[in-house]
């Protein structure tokens, strides 16, 4: 597939905004996946290409947090392995799903993610006693890794929420470790989808450059505790607008099914 300069520029802008949001609160895929699909890219290729660009942006955020000493790599070794393994399974599963099914499923998942960001619990800054043990942490990250490999948007927010609500971490620490876990799941899914020949490299690399810049900005804002209050409403508005765009595409199977009943 070939794309004009205007389309690539808009996709790069989407990746920059998504990289910033993803480093700060997670959920950047709510912007990039609908943007890729709105550019005419089929769902599986859109998800695969999104993994390429988001892997660069997440790496950028991990490096920024690591330089500040915010990541405990030893403690999170096995949760990282769990997220990586689960993501491989999810990426294999998505390549076996009918593309028309995905075209109808993606808008549903996006609306569900928007509802989560609008109504979901807000994280706290205070460290608390963990409700679950290390084995549960590995298991939960395996499950979220599978989701990330299969679809992706909102994974970072789900991980951060779990670390805060179930494992007693403060918001900044949870955000930093979420980037590490999300990087593992991104890389695993990307490698699996590359083997499957699903990645659009030219588009993904252009978006990756913008995503790196956005990841650095988002990590800086997260460490400075600035701008977080704007992220949730922005994600909700963007996801709903872009979902509407997808549903307006001719032949969307979800719309056709709704008309049939």
From TrEMBL:
Whether Translocase counts among this entry's keywords is no
The record's annotation in InterPro entries points to:
TM_pro_TauE-like (IPR002781), TSUP (IPR052017)
Instruction: List, alphabetically, the GO terms of the cellular component aspect.
Output: plasma membrane
What start-end ranges are recorded for coiled-coil regions in this protein?
none
Give the membrane topology: Multi-pass membrane protein
**Membrane-crossing residues?**
76-94, 100-119, 131-150, 156-173
Is Transmembrane helix set as a keyword in this record?
A: yes
Q: Which UniProt keywords apply?
A: Cell membrane, Membrane, Transmembrane, Transmembrane helix, Transport
Name the source's superkingdom.
Answer: Bacteria
Q: What is its main location?
A: membrane
The subcellular localization recorded is:
Cell membrane
PANTHER family xrefs: MEMBRANE TRANSPORTER PROTEIN YFCA-RELATED, TRANSMEMBRANE PROTEIN YFCA
Q: Which family does it belong to?
A: Belongs to the 4-toluene sulfonate uptake permease (TSUP) (TC 2.A.102) family.
**Protein name as annotated:** Probable membrane transporter protein
* Species of provenance: Luteimonas granuli
The upper taxonomy is: Bacteria, Pseudomonadati, Pseudomonadota, Gammaproteobacteria, Lysobacterales
């Amino acid at each position: 597939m070939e794309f004009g300069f205007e389309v690539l520029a808009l996709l790069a802008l989407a990746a920059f905004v998504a990289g910033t949001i993803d480093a700060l609160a997670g959920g950047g895929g709510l912007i990039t996946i609908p943007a890729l699909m709105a550019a005419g890219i089929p769902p599986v290729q859109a998800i695969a290409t999104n993994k390429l660009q988001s892997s660069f942006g997440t790496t950028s955020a991990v490096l920024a947090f690591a330089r500040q000493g915010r990541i405990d790599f030893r403690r999170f070794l096995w949760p990282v392995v769990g997220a990586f393994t689960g993501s491989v399974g999810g990426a294999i599963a998505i390549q076996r799903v009918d593309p028309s099914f995905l075209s109808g499923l993606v808008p549903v998942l996006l609306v569900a993610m928007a509802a989560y960001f609008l109504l979901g619990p807000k994280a706290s800054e205070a460290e608390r006693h963990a409700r679950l043990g290390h084995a549960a942490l590995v298991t939960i990250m395996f499950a979220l890794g599978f989701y990330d490999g299969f679809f992706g948007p909102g994974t970072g927010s789900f991980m951060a929420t779990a670390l805060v609500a179930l494992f007693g971490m403060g918001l900044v620490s949870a955000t930093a470790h979420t980037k590490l876990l999300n990087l593992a799941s991104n890389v695993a899914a990307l490698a699996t989808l590359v083997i499957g020949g699903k990645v659009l490299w030219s588009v993904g690399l252009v978006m990756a450059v913008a995503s790196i810049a956005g990841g650095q900005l988002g990590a800086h804002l997260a460490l400075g505790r600035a701008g977080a209050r704007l992220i949730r409403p922005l994600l909700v508005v963007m996801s709903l607008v872009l979902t509407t765009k997808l549903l307006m595409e001719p032949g969307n199977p979800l719309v056709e099914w709704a008309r049939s009943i």
